Amino acid sequence: MSTLITGGTGQTGLKLAHLLHEANQPFLITSRSGAAPKPYKSVRFDWLDSATFENPFLADPTINRVYLIGPPVDDMVTQIKPFIDLAVTKGVKRFVLLSASQLDKGDPAMGKVHEYLVDIGVEYSILRPTWFADNFTRIFITSIRNEDHIFSVAKDGRIPFVSTQDIAQAAFDALLAEKAPNNEPYVLGPVLYSYEEAAELLTEILGRKIFYKRRTEAEHRQFFESFGLPKGYAELLVSMELKVGDGSEEAFFNIEARKKIIGKESLRDYLLASKEAFSS
């Protein structure tokens, strides 16, 4: 029996592959190109091309668990549902879906996929991480290097930024748990930070002043659209960041212990480990 990792060369997928490899657990990676880092086995898979959906099962008929990372599209469930249905006919019993802290069952994007997995009666775990610590070396890397600032519409909202390593560990544990998880845990970092406090951390670590710029909704939406995201998906991301300003992520951080997974790596830990990236 083995695990299929969709989005296997992405932020959490590749880290999950490392964990499975170290544990001597069989797995298969998918990517749109069909390529993956050695020594991992991979197949071509594209959410926007249903002709590729059977490729993983032809390459490994023993797949019985799937880590799901959906495409950044407005109507995500329409793209993912046919693959889930196919996977079930191929013997997949458990799905672990990467969702988001603010998306409940039935909400747009991953929320609809969450609802479908529950409704069809498979084993599932819906991971609901907060904002990624890794965003600082991806989304903010250019503005930090060239303009000494980070930005958001989240005002003074505080976030327990979580590392993708901790998200991958949560996925690993859910995929390999002996008993079906059938849960939807929030996945959070161990310390709360506002963006102002994050800028102060960067100032301390980098030895130069890093500022926090408060963007307008329109500016932030245009930023996400510049990555090629559909307008509706960009609007969803902006609306989620606005909720941060109203205290959404701090509320999740303070929720009862059984509903959350607290990672090991704080934002400070992550930024210290990534220090060189900001001056390259």
TrEMBL record:
- Give one GO biological process term: indole alkaloid biosynthetic process
Highest taxon of source: Eukaryota
Which GO molecular-function terms appear in the entry? Answer: oxidoreductase activity
Keyword field? Alkaloid metabolism, Oxidoreductase
**Stored InterPro entries:** Ergot_Alk_Oxidoreductase, Ergot_alkaloid_biosynthesis, NAD(P)-bd_dom_sf
Pathway in which this enzyme or protein is active: Alkaloid biosynthesis; ergot alkaloid biosynthesis
**Protein family:** Belongs to the fgaFS/easG family.
Q: What is this protein called?
A: Uncharacterized protein
